[in-house]
Design goal:
The chain is an alpha+beta fold. It has 3 domains: about 120 residues, no CATH class; about 50 residues, no CATH class; about 120 residues, Immunoglobulin-like. It contains 9 helices and 17 strands. A hairpin with a 5-residue loop joins strand 3 and strand 4. The relative contact order is 0.12.
Length: about 325
Amino acid sequence: MRPDSYPRYQKIGVVATLIGNIWSCNAVFFSKGIVPDPPQYQAWNFPYRAMLDASPQAHFAWHSDYPWASTNPLFHLYSLVTPYEIAGDLSECPDPSWVGNKTLSVDEALPMMTIEGAYAMFREQEVGSLVPGKYADLIILSANPKTDLNAIRNILVWMTMVGGQVRWCAPGHEALCPGSLEVQKPPISSPASPVAIRLQIKTTSNWATLTLNGGTLIDAKVVSASAETTNAGVNGNQLAINQPIGLASSGGSVEMVVDATLTDAQTAAQLEFLIQSGAIGDTTVTLFNPLQAAPVKIGTLAPNQQNTTINVPVAKFISP
């Protein structure tokens, strides 16, 4: 992006959609077989700060670049307001030296992710802000993103409302979900005792993640992983695995097995598994009940797209 183009967004009135994750964690695009930009051009890459300063009245909207990057908007917000990126495989890295100053403030980034996104879709009169007459599309977060920029990546969504209807209510936060308690809160018999759990994730994509809702994983550890895996790990309730993009493109497959203890689940509730992966290949998740001498396979979850949510009864894990 040449500097003399920065003010033209406002002058011409075009809308620019800016990605949050800029792929700086994925060296394949910048160091393997690709000639880097000449040094005098390198600062022109992702110069978000200069673009907004030169066109303060222009419309800039965010997009995720999914499936190459995560769909988690908080990961993208973190990358927009700090000089760091969280890749689809949950690895984190600093922006490379050749990137121009892309760091924005939270007050600049949040409108890009809300009202400006609506404007880009010609829907700013319907959605994108919380005013009378628009659809009540909103979320409640576990923390204020402006309080601690470094903590943004760990913020959780406690409630999601679409058109005034609660579509997601995090367990334990039902009081924040008006008019939805009967729908969102299943009959609870009793808290389930902590139980051992084993998950196997196998993917032919270059990255895949598995996120658990409805319970908490503690003492989670990777007990095995394919040699070709470049990252295999657990971060709280999220499992991540990836392999080189070249290997995935040629049909390569990697897998890992994670053992953990499942807590904070209710016996009559559901465990929600969100499976996400890159655009290459597919991902299979196998669940085991290790209560018997040999772990019992409960079922295989094979998504036919890169973003799939599957629910499994907690009872599957608390009885042999």
